[in-house]
Amino acid sequence: MEYIFVVGCAKTGSKLIRQILMTHPDVDILAELHFLVPRWIKKDFVHHAREIGPLAVDRNVRALVDLMYSNRLAGSFWRTDPGRRIEESPGRIDDLDPERLQQAILRSDRSYRAVMQILLEEHAARTGRRVAGAKFPVNIAHTPTLIGWFPGCRVVHLVRDPRAIYTSMVKMSEKRSRVALLRSEKPAQAARLYYAVQQYRHSGRVHAAYAKEPFYHLLRFEDVIREPETTIRALCDFLELEFRPAMCEPQMGVGSNYGDSSKAQRGFDARTLERWKEHIPRAGRAIIESLLKKEIATFGYRAPA
Predict the structure, then answer these.
(1) 2 in helix, strand or coil?
(2) How far apart are CA 23 and CA 85, in angstroms?
(3) Which of 38, 105, 273, 294 has CA atoms 20 to 30 A from the CA of 65?
(4) CA distance linking residue 87 with residue 132, whole number of Å
(5) Alpha helices (H) in 140-227, listed in sequence order
(6) What phi and psi, each to the nearest 5 degrees, are found at residue 2?
(7) pLDDT computed for residue 84 by the predictor
(8) Of the candidates 145, 135, 115, which has an alpha carbon nearest to the alpha carbon of residue 45?
């Protein structure tokens, strides 16, 4: 089995990249697993599994499979309720048969790596595809572990202008908040800013560590939007996949939290890439441009002199 993993920071436009890859008949990309995530961010899959107990015990394996279908785990892969789904496409736990999944784990060495491999391979087998993978299977900080678990995998590192990422985080929090006070709560905004900076610094570290490795490919979201065919052809070359014209015809547009999403332009609309400039908090922009000056330059984004 071949493996493809899309890694990066939150709010980089990964849903669109996943859709592009899923258009290829050989590729199966799961939705977000949040398998390994720093504890200060959220409880990840492994943390919940450890709370159940050692997987060497059969009943704990059964409890773990029950948890997988409970809607209690973070990540869109684990969403079984259609009303809570973030992406309306295959690539979730309820595509799999729980009994078959449980038996596969019982037959394995029951390590967390084995559990993740089983999820990937069972889903790829169900969809009849030869390449398994996931978008953001682990937090960007755990990329080395992911590479160690799956020797020979291919890593697509998705980046976007950090100012656009931060702005999207802020606008999404405003849309989701039902309490007006929380929309402007300073501690919450400061936490989002810290998260954006910390995660982007990890992106810089990942790029520095693997940029020269043959299994690593840097993919700028802006390039996908501005030059889709050229960028997607290069991605296919890296993944050793045959380019398909359908990959340049996505049904979803660029993610936007700046207005009515029902009116969003579908496909590759470069105009949407500049919207963050109208909405980013002034102080947040200044902090990002100061603290991430090195990373902004490394990934080829412009910042004021």
Answers:
(1) strand
(2) 20
(3) 38
(4) 18
(5) 143-149, 162-176, 180-183, 186-210, 221-226
(6) -95, 150
(7) 47
(8) 115
Structure tokens at 223: 């390039």
Q: Which amino acid is at 294?
A: K
Report how far residue 253's alpha carbon sits from residue 41's, in angstroms, rounded to the nearest whole number. Answer: 28
Tell me how many degrees the CA angle 255-260-265 measures, rounded to the nearest 5.
Answer: 50
Instruction: Say what the pLDDT of residue 172 is.
Output: 72
Kindly report each contact of residues 270-274 with a partner whose C-beta sits within 8 Å and lies 24 or more positions away, as own/partner: 270/225, 270/226, 272/225, 273/164, 273/222, 273/225, 273/226
8 has which bridge partners?
Answer: 158
Q: Which residue shows structure tokens 């490394």?
A: 298
pLDDT for residue 266: 55
How does pLDDT run across 28-82, given as a tens digit for each residue?
A: 999 999 999 999 999 999 999 999 999 999 999 999 999 999 999 999 999 987 6
Q: In what order do the strands lie in the sheet with 131-135?
A: 27-30, 131-135, 2-8, 154-159, 216-220
Q: Please, which residues have CB within 8 angstroms of residue 90's CB and are 6 or more apart in sequence?
A: 22, 127
Residues β-bridged to residue 29: 133
